[in-house]
Amino acid sequence: MVTVNHNYLKLPGSYLFSTIGKKVKAYKEANPQANVISLGIGDVTQPLAPAIIEALHKSVDEMGDAATFHGYAPDLGYEFLRSAIAKNDYKDRGCDIEADEIFVSDGAKSDSGNIQEIFGLDNKIAVCDPVYPVYVDTNVMAGRTGEYNKERGNFDNVIYMPCTASNGFLPEFPEEVPDLIYLCFPNNPTGGAITKPQLQEWVDYANKNGSVIIYDAAYEAYISEEDVPHSIYECEGARSCAIELRSFSKNAGFTGVRLGFTVVPKDLVRDGVDLHSLWARRHGTKFNGAPYIVQRAGEAVYSPEGKAQLKEQVGYYMSNAKAIYEGLASAGYSVSGGVNAPYIWLKTPDKMTSWEFFDYLLEKANIVGTPGSGFGAHGEGFFRLTAFGTQENTLEAIERIKNL
Ligand SMILES: *Cc1c(COP(=O)(O)O)cnc(C)c1O
């Protein structure tokens, strides 16, 4: 008799974005004249930069010629891309990471979901609350958690680290020592960032306790402040306790192109085994490589033209972030984020729940955002707005909120 993976049945179902979609659709049907602006989804809107388009065209042509055609890519990524990453993202920032410690993939969502596979099921995970849902859900699917607790709104046997206004939206060391610690900075959804001395404390903690940090740096390109690290490997000792996840989605608009990478330093050893070789084994068995044309596009991200164009693109989103932050602050809202990340995290006014504020904003201002409670129990009473819209829509949305 066939049985299913019963761990999947523990998942309460993420109704967040489908509920938002349904509510917006119903509102638009009832109010066809309304001009609804979305500052809700975490997807980019600007087109791919010219340097990237050029690299794509060139490599597509190569694929049409027998002399330059490329079949299966190397499992772990083409050398040209891995070297460009090692040099630009690590060596140039003073981080000791070699090209052969980089594993090219189709994005950080899959890597952040798959990385747990190389760890035993008896490991206990710690996550921030609120959190990007992939880390928890994939551990649930694997059987590394208990049941979902409806009252608390989270899972048994998971260590949740509340990130609230009172701790500046930064996690505190939990009472119980976790095996795997998921950290994401700059953060989705709070838009908060961690300073280098603060991250160093986590690295020291992990090394002291034998934990492993899984560090999601998908928003690294949005960092504007000097003391905020772009990589966990800027911290001393991170090579022996941290795995880093990166994506081309948010810095270069690859959400629909798909490219990312994971760094597993060769010094990272647990249970007598080096994790680099385990991840290489997993990657080689289950993944057949990111497309050649996409890896060439990724290489163009590091060209002088690519860098200049993407700096401008990130700047465009960050000027939206600044406008949202300042607009809301001047309208009397408690706001955070938006300085090193394209997300603004605001406290709902008048003790409204996250969903009450969602309805209020949709009905009174025709603006769509994301309820903080959708990211975890401690997101209740908060709301996320993104800077990924067009400038025109963003400025219009702020005027409407100010006029409420
Ligand atoms: C957008 C995002 C990613 C990137 O995902 P891709 O699969 O590379 O598009 C990873 N982590 C977080 C927290 C994100 O918000």
Secondary structure layout:
Blueprint: H1 16-30, E1 37-38, H2 50-63, H3 79-90, E2 102-105, H4 108-114, E3 125-129, H5 134-142, E4 148-149, E5 154-155, E6 159-162, E7 180-184, H6 196-209, E8 212-216, E9 242-247, H7 249-252, E10 260-263, E11 269-270, E12 273-274, H8 275-286, H9 292-300, H10 304-330, E13 335-337, E14 343-347, H11 354-365, E15 367-368, E16 370-371, E17 382-386, H12 391-402
Parallel strand pairs: 1-15, 3-6, 3-7, 7-8, 8-9
Antiparallel strand pairs: 2-10, 4-5, 9-10, 11-12, 13-14, 14-17, 16-17
Helix pairs in contact: 2-9, 3-9, 4-5, 10-12
Pyridoxal-5'-phosphate binds next to helix 4 and helix 7.
Would you write up a description of this structure?
The protein has 404 residues and is an alpha/beta fold. It has 2 domains: 13-47 and 305-402, Aspartate Aminotransferase, domain 1; 53-303, Aspartate Aminotransferase, domain 2 (3-Layer(aba) Sandwich). It has helices at 16-30, 50-63, 79-90, 108-114, 134-142, 196-209, 249-252, 275-286, 292-300, 304-330, 354-365, 391-402, and strands at 37-38, 102-105, 125-129, 148-149, 154-155, 159-162, 180-184, 212-216, 242-247, 260-263, 269-270, 273-274, 335-337, 343-347, 367-368, 370-371, 382-386. Strands 2-10-9-8-7-3-6 form a 7-stranded mixed beta sheet, sandwiched between helices. Strand 11 (269-270) and strand 12 (273-274) form a beta hairpin. Helix 3 runs parallel beside helix 9. It is globular. The mean pLDDT is 97. The structure holds pyridoxal-5'-phosphate. This is LL-diaminopimelate aminotransferase. Residues 35-401 form the Aminotransferase class I/classII large domain.
